[in-house]
UniProtKB/TrEMBL annotation:
Location in the cell: Cytoplasm
The protein's name in its UniProt record: Aminopeptidase
Sorted UniProt keywords: Aminopeptidase, Hydrolase, Protease, Thiol protease
UniProt keyword Hydrolase present: yes
Organism superkingdom: Bacteria
Active site: C73, H367, N388
Family per similarity comment: Belongs to the peptidase C1 family.
Amino acid sequence: MTSLSKEITADQTARYQQALAADPTAKVLERAVSHQGILATSADYASETDMTPVFSIDLDTGKVANQKQSGRCWMFAALNTMRHHLADLFNLSDFELSQNYTNFWDKFEKANYFYENVLATADQPTSSRKVAFLMATPQQDGGQWDMLCAIIEKYGIVPKSVMPETYNSSKSSELNSTLNLKLRKDAVTLRKLVADKASDADIAAAKDKMLGEVYRLLSFSLGEPVSEFDFEYRDDDKNYHIDKGLTPKSFFDKYVNWDLSDYVSIINAPTDDKPYNHTYTVEMLGNVVNGRQVKHLNVTMKDFKALAIKQLQAGQSVWFGCDVGQSSERQKGIMDTKFYDKDALFNIDFSTTKAERLDYGESMMTHAMVLTGVDLVDGQPTKWKVENSWGEKVGTKGYFVMSDAWMDEYCYQVVVNKQFLPDNLKKTQETEEPTVLAPWDPMGALA
């Protein structure tokens, strides 16, 4: 076998230099790229013409929200789909549900989930991949649709006016670093208790004390969640309303009234280890212990888009997850595979398949948003309207345009009502025991 341990030789470097010197465009491109950057130099603004924000199906969903300097896109997007429904029912266009309320309980539950995983892996060395995975990020802002459902099923939701944003919810880095400091310290204690063969009662008492401290930390940082409140508002016709003595769960039941079990996660992961038309879950992914399990149904991209279109045609927006940083222009609000042409700029073939990008770490789900429209031409989608949660200063008042080709390559998840599933997929989703994927599988990425 030929050895692969070969150094770069002077002859090789000389050949590379000669090839560059022989290229008459090299110096021009060097000046452009080095002064303007790769993205600006490779941008093809003709893409803007194709991405005009006009759609044959266009839901009116009002003003966009702003997650600010936090990673709660999944939570904002999910609550946005619910507020769209609420706004239609109660004539409330400029209304938001409290992202801070669900954020509090998510972080509290994630702490307990982390402690349970620490105890479950306490017999493994800290060098094991699972323990290292746990300690790398004990908790974070990100999450999955099923995880928010688990929070709502246990704690309900409230209007934003009842539990507004705080410094730490809008700018979460200080809270996350402080909470993770505590969780790692607690992991040391819990693992030592197990190593010392402490009783179950002693371990439970230690964990109870830790959770009490987490509750105090979160209450100081985010405010303590309300247990009962009055909902006072004026609708779009300026009519006054007040609803007294609500709880977070009764508010959800009255004002949203969704059966969350009807809404299921559909993914497109074309990798060899995930055959289509089967279900998957991810080890150590979740927040509420004994709560709703993360469960994905993997389908072809054709089925993936057809399900999203059916829900939009029915007048309901669609939560979706994607790799937002790929071929995306934030300020203009355009996501299009043609927007940047790095291949032509560098004369290098950068192309990989969607499966290869997942398998080799080039792409995974990084952001969740909401589909609120689609442009169908001869029955086929050409572009999609996207409600983001980055405020109104980007895109078209916060709304983005996504090309259909971009969806093919960089969208990984939609959440749809299972009524839109064909009978065979509905049966699979409801009855099949999901295959358990490794904790670091890309389908476990948090938006």
